[in-house]
């Protein structure tokens, strides 16, 4: 019987998709893999061919609800809110929900290693209780030190409840950190992470639907711009501003409004604009010339993997980190919420399509990603911890 590896993560697709290639590689190397995830993520994981078990109820409160639960957030300077919000959402709220189910499950299954998403903190507690190693798998940029420290403070009582001494950063960096961010994008200080293992990000979401890509009804030699705000930050007003800008350019536009979104929210559109709920980016991006997004980690990395210039319109969470990284590498342009108007968006997209320097820089990032250790390489490294 092979060694047992327990994966743990939040249920959002932005956390599931980046972990799938490594989980599959561990299976291919003969390991038994089980994925512990809140109830609403089980079906998504099992569609990848990986066994999953529900640990914790479905869903997490959104930022607005977290603010209602913790009104002190409203008194903080805006630059401090993301760090405290992360700790409250994933440390104070999510971790206890997951831990209550994860402890008995892990005690029964007896894993040899835990691979925890960077926003999942219960897995490190269970690993410490079982006396096994746990590694943190990044889902995008290395999170700011203060953000993970705050989450570690939130989960400290959970460590004590299991008779354990709390670990700094919630145990996230006690063992190697698996970093999927290309060096060209790295803008965060990393002195607090003693061991980093690069891991090539792989766009592996095509299992979510068929291979058919619905494209706009327009000549195929017209540049195609893909517009997405991910699966959470689907503000209809943002889509309307973006589409108003793009309709002034000679481009085809493919828009996805999210699995739970309604394409009708963007209103009537010309034939060269196609609006869908969800299409796997692994299928869409090979057809594209530029991408407009919320700068979610999965979209930013998948776009970079394809060497495409991108316009980042960050809305929250880690998106501001990603947008800054893209702009610092000259692989795209970022517009902050206060600057996100039709004129600025139109001008930015026009620049991305005409100025070759953006595509060249994006190509350099793509080449760097290709040189990073593959999931199979990293699976072999993890075997040394078993």
Written overview of the protein:
The protein is α/β, with parallel strands linked by helices and 386 residues long. It is 39% helix and 14% strand. It contains 14 helices and 13 strands. It has helices at 13-16, 20-28, 42-46, 63-69, 81-109, 122-130, 145-161, 236-246, 281-284, 297-305, 319-328, 342-354, 356-371, 375-383; strands at 4-8, 32-37, 51-54, 113-117, 134-137, 177-179, 196-198, 224-228, 252-256, 273-276, 290-293, 310-312, 332-334. Strands 3-2-1-4-5-6-7 form a 7-stranded parallel beta sheet, sandwiched between helices. A 6-stranded parallel beta sheet has the order 10-9-8-11-12-13, sandwiched between helices. Strand 12, helix 11 and strand 13 (332-334) form a beta-alpha-beta unit. Helix 2 crosses helix 14, helix 5 crosses helix 7 (145-161) and helix 8 crosses helix 12. It is globular, with a radius of gyration of 21 Å. The model has no long low-confidence stretch (mean pLDDT 90).
């Amino acid at each position: 019987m092979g060694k047992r590896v327990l994966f743990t993560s939040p249920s959002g697709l932005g956390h599931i998709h980046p972990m799938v290639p490594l989980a599959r590689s561990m299976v291919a190397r003969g390991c038994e893999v089980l994925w512990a995830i809140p109830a609403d993520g089980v079906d998504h994981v099992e569609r990848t061919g990986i066994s999953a078990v529900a640990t914790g109820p479905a869903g997490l409160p959104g930022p607005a609800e977290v603010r209602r639960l913790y009104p002190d957030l409203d008194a903080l300077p805006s630059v401090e809110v993301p760090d405290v919000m992360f700790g409250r959402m994933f440390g104070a709220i999510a971790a206890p929900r997951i831990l209550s189910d994860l402890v008995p499950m892990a005690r029964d299954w007896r894993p040899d290693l835990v691979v925890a998403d960077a926003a999942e903190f219960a897995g490190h507690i269970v690993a410490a209780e079982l006396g096994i190693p746990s590694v943190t798998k990044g889902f995008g940029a290395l999170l700011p030190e203060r953000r993970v420290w705050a989450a570690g403070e939130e989960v400290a009582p959970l460590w004590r409840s299991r008779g354990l001494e709390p670990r700094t950063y919630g145990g996230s960096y006690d063992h190697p950190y698996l970093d999927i961010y290309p060096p060209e994008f790295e803008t965060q200080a990393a002195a607090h992470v003693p061991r980093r293992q690069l891991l090539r990000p792989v766009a592996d979401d095509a299992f979510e639907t068929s291979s058919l890509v619905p494209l706009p009804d327009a000549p195929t030699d017209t540049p195609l711009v893909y517009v997405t705000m991910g699966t959470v930050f689907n503000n209809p007003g943002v889509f309307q501003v973006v589409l108003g800008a793009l309709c002034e350019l000679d481009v085809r536009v493919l828009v996805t409004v999210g699995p739970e979104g309604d394409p009708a929210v963007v209103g009537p559109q010309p034939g060269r604009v196609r609006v869908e709920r969800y299409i796997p980016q692994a299928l869409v991006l090979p057809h594209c010339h530029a991408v407009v997004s919320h700068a979610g980690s999965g979209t930013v990395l998948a776009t970079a993997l394809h060497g495409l210039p991108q316009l980042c319109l960050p809305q929250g969470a880690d998106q501001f980190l990603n947008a800054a990284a893209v702009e610092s590498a000259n692989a795209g342009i970022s517009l902050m919420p206060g600057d996100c108007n039709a004129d600025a968006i139109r001008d930015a997209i026009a620049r991305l399509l005409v100025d070759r320097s953006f595509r060249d820089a994006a190509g350099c990032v793509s080449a760097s990603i290709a040189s990073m250790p593959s999931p199979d390489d990293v699976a072999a490294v993890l075997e040394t911890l078993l």
